User: Fold this.
Amino acid sequence: MFKITIYILTIIHAICWSSTSYAKGTYLEPEKFLQQVFNNNPPEPKKLWIKKDLKAEIKKILGHNLKALRLRYWDDDTKRAWILEEIGRDKLITVGLVTANGEILEVKVLIFRESRGWEVKYPFFTDQFKGATLVTDNNLDRKIDGITGATLSVNALTKLGRIALLLHKHLDEKK
Assistant:
């Protein structure tokens, strides 16, 4: 009986361990994301300095200060690519976002470090962001449907979508 119990516990442990390790990982290298976005010819990165007014708007979205003083982005005069990070539950989620004309063209989860919530990587979720724009108070013009068990990851990606559009708008206003 003892051997059967050990065997069953070993199988349960293996199943639980493999499901959490499956969630974590690099789904798409940031460099490959940029290659895809810009047809294998990404422009040189540019820097956006985060000044006081922009920092305050970002804080309203994130609920905390952005630690970076500047953010890199890639712009080929038709679209901009952003690689942004936000904490889901405990760890950073790295997301690639593409914006143009004040709307989101694409969202991809690049690196996921959490043990739960990895379902946000799938197109059934990320496709909800396509065409999204900002409205009052830097909110998205649509509700993003959540995923059971992935609320914090959903919230993180939604915040990053809002920030990418805010940064896009900020650059357009500087022109």
User: Anything to note?
Assistant: Strands lie at 25-26, 46-49, 70-75, 80-87, 92-100, 103-112, 134-135, 139-140. The chain has a mean pLDDT of 91.
